[in-house]
Every structure is written in C-alpha cells, then in structure tokens.
Amino acid sequence: MIEVRNLCKRYGDKNAVNDISFSVGKGEILGFLGPNGAGKSTTMNMLTGYISSTSGHISINGVDILENPIEAKANIGYLPEIPPLYVDMTVDAYLNFMYDLKKCKLTRKAHLKEICDLCKISHVRERLIRNLSKGYKQRVGLAQALINNPPVLILDEPTVGLDPSQIIEIRSLIKKLGKNHTVILSSHILPEIQAVCDRIIIINKGVIAADGTAAEIANKLTNEHKMTVRIEGTTRTTEDKPVVAEALRAIDGIKYVRADMEREKGIYDYDIESDDEVDVRRAINNLCREKGWNILMLQLSDMTLEDIFMKITTGDITAIKSDEKKPDLSEYDMSFGSDNVAEEKTPAEAEESPEEAAEAEKKKEDSPKKKDKKSKKGGNK
Ligand code: ADP
C-alpha cells in the first residue's frame, strides 16, 4: 500500500531524513517511534506530499507522489499534529467544506453521518469548532481525514495534549480504523505504540534504527532468548533439581541453564538462555511430557519496548535494567507509563472539564460508565 525508497530530506547541512526505505501492507497499523527531532514529522510530511523530498521515491497505493500527486493524495487521509481546522465554522459546515474540497463522490449525508458516528461527534455537529474541547477538536480532525474513505491514514501524534480518557478513546478508534485502512501513526509514547500498532519503525537521527514487531526487534538486538521455567519433577525433592537441569541442557539450542530457588515445596525455577534462531519452548514441553514432569510456569524475559528504545537511542541497555541507575529520559520527552499520563491530566482537565461536562449534560447518550468516571474525577479534585 505504501512504498518508500531511499527517502532523504535535507535542511541546509542537516539530514533530517537520511535514506530511509520501508513498505507498509494493506490493513497494517505501523507505529513511527522516535525521540523528538528524530525525523518522524518530516517523513510523514513527505508521505502526504505536504513537503517534497530532497531525493527518493514514495508511492501510495501504487501511485508515485511526485509524478501524480493529486491521485496519490486522494488515497491518503492525514491528521497533522495540529489538526487543520477552521475554528469559526461549525463542525457540520467544516466537514461539508472538506467533503467538497476532496471532491468526494460518496453519498454526502450518509457518508458524513457514518464518519460522525464513528468519531462520536454527531452531537456536536452544530457547534462552532472553536468552542470544542481539545479532545473533540482532535476527533473532528480525524473525521476530516476519513472523508472520501481513503485507504491510507497518516496520523501525526494523534493523542498529544489529550487527557487519559480521551487518549484511550482515540486509541481504540485507531484500532477500529486499522481493520479497514492502512494506518501510519507517529508517537513518542511507547505504551501507545505498543497498544495500537502491529509493527514498529524506530527512527533515530533521520535513519531507521529498527523495523518489526516489538518481539522481532528485541530478537534482533539480543543474541539470546531468556526465560524462566518452573518445573515439577518426579520426586518433588531436591533430587529433581540436577536431573531436570541436565535434561534441559541437552536440548538443542539451549546454551545455559541455572537452577534457581525452590519456589514451591520441592519445585524449582530454571533460568534458561537459548540461541536466537531457536524457539526452545516446544522442546521443553516435549521433554516434560516424555518424563512425566509438569511445567507450572514459563515466562519469557525478552526486552520490553522501553529496553529496545533505550538500547537503540542511547546504546545503553544495562542502565535501564537496573533500578538504581535509570537514565534521564526527559531529553526524549517520553511518556513511559501511567504516572506521566496522570501528570498531564490536571491542566487538560481543568481546561476542558466545564465543556465536557456541558456536553455530557446536553447529551444523555453518554454511557453511565463515562459519567461515573467524570464524577470520580470531580471528587478527586
Ligand atoms: P520529529 O517529528 O521526529 O520530532 P522532525 O521531523 O520534526 O522530528 O525534525 C527532524 C529534524 O529536522 C530536527 O532536527 C528538526 O530540527 C529539523 N527540521 C525539521 N523541519 C525543519 C525546517 N523546516 N527547517 C530546518 N530544520 C528542520
């Protein structure tokens, strides 16, 4: 659906994007992850034809964006980081305007209704965009991207500035859209990428540093898999420990076995490292079945997306593995977990609460669950 070959963008002496190539298949949700300044927006702007490349090729749905920009762009719905909204228009007038601008041939009324329902903005269609909360503005931005049903959606930091409940809503909407569209999503928020995307491209200093699923990237970065298996042996005594460990060591691909502590009476954990090409889990399972042993737990301890990101962008993996010595992440403006998200919540809520509350009042269609949430928030203040 999207083909990018040897794409470069120079600003003066600076290579903002330096010879990147990738392709995205139909129905894939691809996450573009990287620290600020990595080149994500520049790449997206080139993909959408918003800026030209210095060199390289981009084709969207088989159409070259430089040779045939109008046709190529007709295949793309784009939500830039700052949604392109005319705030003095009502939502309805704006969407109709975008419908005309895109020369959409689908049945106007039904198409706009479908999009508004999907983006949950049907009840604010008659309101001025300037009076909407940030979350609703973002949904209107997404709605305009969906007009004319483009096969490709490009979303630049779609959840930036939203409060946690809005973030969850937009993420689930993106997942839903991924069923019928090819989606490229940029974010500096690791959990977001992990929650929404099938595949990740990590971009760093203008080049692709990694491409694949989180698990595939982790596999490439480490030479070994690590896991812990809890095995119940025949005798359920200390005698099992060397017997089980020895049998595990004999499995092809297992490089290292260490019998760990007794976790349950007479039952031990075994820390295992294996070659990266070999998935030894089935062999362990077969061994236990043959011997009449039971696997009570198997836990992979491969790298998390955070580990991967840190390894790629700083070259330092050990620091984040250690609790005492976490590197300063502020440089990357990364939102690693719920704590960070919660911190963003207060100002956004303070700004948006009255309006959100008014919207909830106006429309009884809000689910009781959502209302509960709102009243809880109010109670916390
Ligand atoms: P990201 O979206 O990953 O935060 P950008 O694509 O915005 O990164 O920027 C990549 C690099 O290109 C940065 O170093 C940025 O300063 C530079 N850059 C982006 N746009 C321009 C521009 N119009 N002029 C000069 N430099 C730019």
Key words describing this protein structure:
alpha/beta, Rossmann fold, Alpha-Beta Plaits, six-stranded mixed sheet, binds adenosine-5'-diphosphate
Topology:
Blueprint: E1 2-11, E2 14-24, E3 29-33, H1 40-47, E4 55-60, E5 63-64, H2 69-73, E6 76-79, H3 91-101, H4 108-118, H5 134-146, E7 152-156, H6 164-177, E8 182-187, H7 190-196, E9 199-204, E10 207-212, H8 214-221, E11 224-232, H9 240-249, E12 254-264, E13 267-275, H10 281-291, E14 294-300, H11 305-314, H12 318-321, H13 338-362, H14 368-380
Residues 11, 14, 16, 34, 36-42 line the site of adenosine-5'-diphosphate.
Can you offer a commentary on this structure?
39% of the residues lie in helices and 25% in strands. The protein is an alpha/beta fold. The chain folds into 2 domains: 2-219, 3-Layer(aba) Sandwich (Rossmann fold); 223-302, Alpha-Beta Plaits (2-Layer Sandwich). The strands form 3 sheets. A 6-stranded mixed sheet has the order 6-7-8-3-9-10, with helices on both faces. A 4-stranded antiparallel sheet has the order 2-1-4-5. A hairpin with a 2-residue loop joins strand 4 (55-60) and strand 5 (63-64). Adenosine-5'-diphosphate (ADP) binds at residues 11, 14, 16, 34, 36-42.
